[in-house]
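@channel sequence for tomorrow's demo:
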Amino acid sequence: MNAGFLQTPVAYLKGVGPNRAETLQSELGIYVYQDLLNLFPNRYIDKTQYYKIGQLQKSNAEVQIVGKIVHIKTVEQKRGSRLVAKFIDETGEMELVWFRGQKWIRENLKLNVPYVIFGKCNWFNGSFSMPHPEMELLSEHEKNLRIHMQPVYPSTEKLSNKGITNRVLSKLIQQLFVETKGSFEETLSNKILDELKLISKSEALFNIHFPKNQELLAKAQFRLKFEELFYLQLQLIAKNMLHKQRIKGFNFDQVGPLFNDFYANHLPFELTDAQKRVIKEIRADLGSNAQMNRLLQGDVGSGKTIVAVMTMLLAIDNGFQACLVAPTEILANQHYIGIKELLQGTGVTCELLTGSVKKSVRKPIHEQLESGELHILIGTHAVLEDKVVFKNLGLAIIDEQHRFGVAQRSKLWHKGSPNSGEVGGATPPHILVMTATPIPRTLAMSLYGDLDISVIDELPPGRKPIKTVHRYDSNRLKVFHFIKEEIQKGRQVYIVYPLIQESEALDYKDLMDGYESIVRDFPQPQYQISIVHGQMKPEDKDYEMERFVKGETHIMVATTVIEVGVNVPNASVMIIESAERFGLSQLHQLRGRVGRGADQSYCILMTSYKLSSEAKTRLETMVQTNDGFEIAEVDLKLRGAGDIMGTQQSGMLNLKIADIVKDNTILKSARYFAMQLLKDDSTLEKPENLVIRHFYAELAKFKNIWNYIS
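structure tokens (generated this afternoon):
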């Protein structure tokens, strides 16, 4: 059946009509035949077995029975009435009961004619009854396209109220198979079908809706999941190839004196093997004539900044400028201080540009940027303003990329060297995106599959793992005693709360209440306390942060505003109040605020005794491991991809049957086959791959995409 026929509006399918079509659209997003075909069942009821009334158990299970109705009566109740039918087979009798729709049912029931009934059995007053059974004449049941494993489709209250039951949906899909003659175009090549021993597309679609047994159902599910993930990966890999072939980048062909001098004489510590590997990957990109688009993942404290600095030196050695953009002033300031210190004595010029930099200071920065005297600019969104013009920007580094929108990244893209290029009159700078939020491998393959990904997966030597413990509220006095001991040693402490104001609905300590109790237990002048939360003015927040960074205060009481950014090596204790309220990735990010100095650091997770099983799993995971990637994998299993990515990003996947968490083995296989296919035939022009090319073009609605890849 050709793909065009499947774009027929669903209203034209026999049994639908305009009213039902409207409900199917609003409730299930079904507009055309294709959408109905892709309405895959949530689960299946095994109807391979027929029970006898004499075999029934008092188990409340769903059963299927063949028998006859021999008598019908209406029984009056305190409120209304019920319709009761006596149903028999050769082994016994039972009652069928209806509380709604009695008139229609009574008129349509046939006496002494074999029926197949299905439903849950209740045991009451010494006999079995089945309320509101599904019923079908045995003669119809035997004729129907069917049905040993009955599919159960997604449903809503509105669908039920409009009479679009599971049985109706199943009949509509049967009608669709009648109209298409169950024949659908193949979407995978014979090579892939043979190599993976996959069933055909037509068989898969039939057996996903009307499986004859468990084995055929499993084959259908595997085939359709593989296909969905294969085309997702094909799209991402093709996009990456397209980018590399169409968009040329500056060629940083030399490793010059600045890089070599810094490596030999200014590097404050030996690079880890992971850092060396990542720098090699970046160097290969920068010398490839294609524009680099690389995601650098590294856990908190893994040493991404030093990799960024060395990449910037490669740009400067090749006659280009570099910039680093951070999401907040505090983070930009921190990068500036750290990078300036690292580059002392190298002759490299570096300036800071944020919203609070005065106009008198901005003017010389703008002039030095345009003349090329300024090598590195570090800043916030202020760097993206139109009046900020580079002489020859060759490298842009974005820290915590998820905090920047598409439009903001596009502005950075267009700040490339204006004298040389293609995109908007400029060659785009090489882009390095850094994130301290570990992304599970399965998610990275599906969300960032069009970027090249580098991972720093080891911490610098000498860093002591943070000791994490879980304590209940009843241990609070001991925890306070421990805090006082740490402060006496000259250390600083974070105490983080999940709420700003008390919530009546939730029994959690809020920030202000917590702050007051901390002040009571840690009185001035012996102890100095800062407080920071999201409702404060930015200047007040920065002032309190600065006091803590300078060591003027011992304790920082805060909400999660401190999650990303501040580097205070002297802070060695992180207390997280009501830790059960935080997600795993948030707990891990908060823990990463400590452990930045040489001293042993601690993270104490405080909770009440009331914990859900999921909260227990989160806390146990935090206590057992410091590995952000391990934590991210557990988080993905607990929350699923949609929650982790947020609605906006999870919509990118829009998967109908596959689940990238549960089906990650199929995902890896799909990525491997997509990669091999494009390596062997990048334009999909070989005769054996035309079926894939055609279906991909249908999916992409962009039939010329392959013309750009040659």
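heads up for whoever presents: Residues 642 and 651 are 8 Å apart (CA to CA).
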